[in-house]
Amino acid sequence: MKLASIQGPGGLARVAVVRDDRVFDVDDAVAALGIAPEVEAHLARHGLQPAAGGMLRVLQAGRSAWRQLDEAASGEGRPLADCTLLAPLPRPGKIVAVGRNYADHAKETGVAPFEKPRIIAKLPSSVTAPDADIPRPAGVAKLDFEVELAVLIGSVAKAVSQQDALNVVAGYTILNDLSAREFQFDVSPAQTTFAKSFDGFCPMGPWWVTADEIADPQALDLSCFVNGTEMQHGHTSDMLFPVARLIEYISSLMTLEPGDVIATGTPAGIGAFRQPPQYLQPGDRIRMEISRIGAIEHRIVA
What we know:
By secondary structure, this protein is an alpha+beta fold. It has helices at about 25-30, 35-45, 55-60, 65-70, 105-110, 180-185, 190-195, 245-255; strands at about 1-5, 15-20, 20-25, 80, 85, 95-100, 120, 125-130, 135, 145, 145-155, 170-175, 180, 200-210, 220-225, 230-235, 260-265, 285-290, 295-300.
């Protein structure tokens, strides 16, 4: 099943099921979803209430909610072309990014593969819609692209084994890990989190695909095109640390919660390591594709 956040009256996000080119608004059914007991207990320990609605409540409800939403997606729906898509999860809890997680990307950077995952934070306020116009910040000249498979967490996960790790995954989407390389490479100390967290630096979408539709996240093709030219092409089987290992490692250090996102790294071909470097300019169009998920396309503006 494909679940999207669409813009409703007043600009607010509404949850929808996407089937082919039709969109079925199921937002009225979301408030009635029960919260997974372990999630409710986890939130209560921190003095928190479950989300009242929206995609976060869907994730907090767990996999048992998927059938209810599928059944609620009835009638003729609306044409996808008539809907405005927002990021599937407009404001994640946290975005845990992984650096140099593809062998070819590690090679192009001139760095030996890491023995453990390199963890980077990407702040949730950077999230934007899959087809957004993204302003290049003033003073940023080295704006770069990274196509990534993003993992949406759907359970409370602490010290999860690699064997059980995929059970805490709700689903998958596409993420562009936009980066201002001057803050990452040209200053000391490196400001990597800042470089990746400007407003609009995390387009996501166009929807998320539930985990039952993608049994093996290491069996996906991913590509990035800039102005129609392929810049990146890779396969998730080339990850140095596969999704299950990333969840095992991250959850050994911090608790993952429903609504968290893991950005799993990018293959070779980013602008910074091309000869000569090729950075994004106002007017450039970026298209990113991942098999079994779909595509996002956005534009850089001045």
